[in-house]
Fold:
Amino acid sequence: MPPDQSQASVHRAAITDRTELAKGVILLGIHAPELVRVTKPGHFLLAIPPSGERCATALGIYEAQAERASILFFVCGSRTRELADLAVSEYLEVAGPLGNGFDLSGQPKNVAIVAGGVGIASVLLPAQRVAEYGGRVQLYYGARTQALLVDAEKFERYGCVLNLATDDGSSGFDGYVTELLAQTEEVPDLILACGPTPMLHAAAKVASRMRVRAQLSLEETFACGVGACWGCVVPISRASAQAPRFPMLSTDGSRSDSVYARVCKEGPVFWADELRW
Amino acid sequence: MTVRAGADLSVALGRLHLPLPTIMGSGCYGSGEEYASFIDLENIGAVVLKSVTRMPRLGNPTPRLVQTPSGLLNAIGLQNPGVEWYLEHEVGKFSERPCAIIGSVAGFSVDDYAYVTQRLAARDEIDAIEINISCPNVASDGETFACDPKLTSRVVTLVRDLTDKTLIVKLSPNVTDIAGIAREAEAAGADALAVINTVRGMAIDVDVWQPRLGNRTGGLSGPAIRPIAVLAVYEVACAVKIPIIGQGGIETTTDALEFFLAGASAISIGTANFTDPRVPLQIAHGLERYLLGRKLNALRDIVGKANHGFSGPHQYEGDQG
Structure:
């Protein structure tokens, strides 16, 4: 299916709650019932800056339930600083939901979710969805250090089994979360991953060794975020590009064995075996 | 929320009459449908489609975008499925658009421009043609045409003969004498000029000692280039009589007004849509308020008013020039 963006719109949302989960890690709840109604796991939104001079900020939708959605982000620049400074009952304007999310249509029973750092922000909704249809989730969650392993309890509430890893060994496995995934003896039916690009590469390798398909939620610099500018592309195999969800990529003039798909529109979630990166 | 009431914001670009002077820049708005859920397209003047070429193009290697202070550096490289695919799969959708649709033609030879123009212009869904002779991001010097007065003249002369539809020529700021190029385009039969395309630029990653863009060089857009664009419009407006579509970093009504006062008859909005898709609507409302606040009936009354050498445009009946 080509991505359907027709349900996206601009929402003026009041901040309902703000929690600093760790130093520089902010969870911001917003009142956005219309957004919640059409959000699917893996969707993202664009936070419209209060003044111009830069592009809107793309953020994964962390929670979406009843009238409240939330975003979880690390403060890493002036835009995220501005978002972090918002107080309860102030307003945030967002456009969304956007993108092509995780595909759980086959209702796989055993799902491994791999999250690195702020990648955790895009994987709560799929974990919740799997729990809803009666599947089981092993969460592999890695961060630089213990303090940055935020909000893990929330995943436990959805019945996720936690497998934690830290780069400095301060909590859980001492090393990369993908090394932890590689050690598991319980082979999942599907792997979902979101995190830094090197982690996604490693997760794809582990998945391929396990002979399990993986869906990766990619991060790229966006300009438009809606599929208009073709700035955020990633190479996918020419064979994959023949699928109906890549309507404009079925042809190109070169002999290259890959073509460029938009992370914001055809993604941000891609099958690992589609990617040629 | 519709815009049309009160002041007259309409503009004529050759045969193309737009009720609103807000045009969405090529490459920044897809085919319009990407933004249709955020803004009612009835409230914009026109969409300039992403440029198409004769053959499909893979586009540039990644990364293709770098954000710089008040600017966006891009090097997309005209990724597109080629004009035949485009005609077969995309163009039919445009008949339903509530705003004007301007096709954008890019090429690597005079023949390319002629071929694609002819193919696009033959379709009723396309209201006008923009000739993109100024893409800075293609390996074989895509800007060659816009940087050479003789080549500009050749391309425009050739495509002029192929269509009666409004022909817009998009000029590059990366030239010594933009007014000279503008004169050539006008003499060769252009109905309007789009001023300006992006400004060439580069950003370097100091950790890995490499340019940040996959293409190494890119085109800079956004508020960072606005003063460059305003000056270009000012200079071109002194040199030609045909209407100018001012573009380069327009985000607010005040920005847009600068361009009209410099001599633009319409404006194009590109990068600002990436900040907030409602910008075109806000600007149209703002222009209307500005005119009503000054008891002016029509936007055309302010075109070129800050430009002492301005003598055009001649697109309005009864205009004294």
About this structure: The first helix of chain B runs from residue 83 to 89.
